[in-house]
Design a protein that fits this description.
Helix content is 36%, strand content 18%. By secondary structure, it is α/β, with parallel strands linked by helices. The structure holds manganese (II) ion. Manganese (II) ion binds next to loops.
Length: 327
Amino acid sequence: MKKICDELQKAALLVASHKNPEGDAIGSTLAFYHTFPDKKVELFNADPVPYFLKFLPGVEKIRHQMNELSGEYDLVVIVDCANPDRVCERFFQQIKPKFTINIDHHESNSYFGDLNLIDPKASSTGELLFQLFSCFPQKINSQTATCLYTAIMMDTGSFRYINTTPRSLEIASKLANLGADPAWIARNVYESHPPARLILLGMALQTMVFSPDGKRAEMTLTKEMFQKAQADVSFSEGFINYLTSVAGVEVAVLFRELDKNTYKVSFRSQGRVNVAKLAEELGGGGHFQASGTTLKGSLDDIKKLVRQKVDELIAQSKNASQRSYSN
Ligand SMILES: [Mn+2]
């Protein structure tokens, strides 16, 4: 952390995070912008900012096309990315940074930076950044606090998942003291949806399937449903949580059509089954309680494979005790 703090003081920065961004990716990216108001800080994300994060201060500063970036960078900071191609294809080939700092909390991180700050026990990258920014003499300002609070709130599912620790709660409390407004942030993230989101949710709920023992639950979203509801991908954020809200469900699965015969498969665990392991077996990655992968093939074949893998894992985890996050 000390070494990273020293490097951060030296040069202009380019900060980037993973495509298809959520609160931790965008909040962590923006936090750098607000932490160094007197220095050139450029921000990049390959995909647009989802509507429920547009309230965050500074979102308009994020560039989305690589040709909008000024080119030569001495120092690039990558946040919340387990590996470099999560940023986007050809990012590193095109940018060729002289020095890369990698800050993340994914267990599967490949340590691709010249300096790596990786802590799988941290709830979020936002939590790590709070600790990092505490190295600087200046106080964390209210914009940074808002961005970091949003990052932690979203990655802990509003302080409900097993990554909600005394430390993450303590940091959230400190951020509230530094100017983050929890009620205002929650209203913007969770209660500012367009009606089309509920139309899409209605369609998704009709596709619900439970396994006979009720431990596996799934839902399917097709491109046709998005068209009918006039919704884009960001409208389905959080749908999978409706499945884990059902008593007895251990693993929830959401199949989302990306293209003909290509599906994004997302997993959520109620906390007993490690879905990071599941996603890795299927070529993806993520966290103990939230993970995903992309699979090719017919929807029927994909469902068959996924159901078998999920059921196996649930059976294997039969005697596993509740995972303690501090282990
Ligand atoms: Mn994260």
